[in-house]
C-alpha cells in the first residue's frame, strides 16, 4: 500500500533524522574533559595565577557552548529565536557589568 498525494502520484515519505545517543555520549565526555582540565589547572600549585584564570575562563566558555548546543538542543534547526534572546540577554548583562565597573572606578 502506497501513500498518494493530492495529484494522484506516490507521496515521498520523509523520515525524521533521529539523533542517536552517540553525540550525547561524545558531548558528555567532552564536558567531563573540560571539567577535569579546569580542576587540574587549579590543582597545579606552581602555575601562574593569571594563566589559571585564563584557562578557567576558556573552559567555562567552552562548557557553556557544549551545554547550550547539545543539552539545550540549540544546535538544531528552529532555535534561532531563543538564541537571539539569549544573545540579547548576554549583551544587556555585559553592558550592566561594564557600566557598574565604570561607575565604581571613575
Automatic annotation (TrEMBL):
Keywords: Cell membrane, Membrane, Transmembrane, Transmembrane helix. One of its GO terms (cellular component) is plasma membrane. InterPro entries: Cyt_c_oxidase_su4_prok, Cytochrome_c_oxidase_bac_sub4. GO terms for biological process: aerobic electron transport chain; electron transport coupled proton transport. It is a multi-pass membrane protein. It is found in: Cell membrane. The keyword Hydrolase does not apply. One of its GO terms (molecular function) is proton transmembrane transporter activity. The keyword Membrane applies. The chain crosses the membrane at residues 25-44, 50-71, 83-105. PANTHER family: CYTOCHROME BO(3) UBIQUINOL OXIDASE SUBUNIT 4. Belongs to the cytochrome c oxidase bacterial subunit 4 family. This is Cytochrome c oxidase subunit 4.
Amino acid at each position: 500500500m502506497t501513500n498518494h498525494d493530492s495529484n494522484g502520484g506516490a507521496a515521498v515519505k520523509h523520515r525524521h533524522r533521529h539523533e542517536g545517543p552517540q553525540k550525547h555520549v561524545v558531548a558528555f565526555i567532552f564536558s567531563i574533559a573540560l571539567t577535569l582540565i579546569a580542576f587540574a589547572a587549579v590543582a597545579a600549585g606552581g602555575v601562574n595565577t593569571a594563566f589559571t584564570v585564563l584557562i578557567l575562563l576558556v573552559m567555562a566558555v567552552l562548557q557553556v557552548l557544549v551545554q547550550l548546543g547539545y543539552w539545550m538542543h540549540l544546535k538544531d534547526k528552529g532555535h534561532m529565536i531563543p538564541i537571539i534572546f539569549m544573545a540579547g540577554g548576554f549583551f544587556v548583562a555585559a553592558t550592566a557589568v561594564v557600566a557598574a565597573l565604570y561607575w565604581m572606578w571613575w
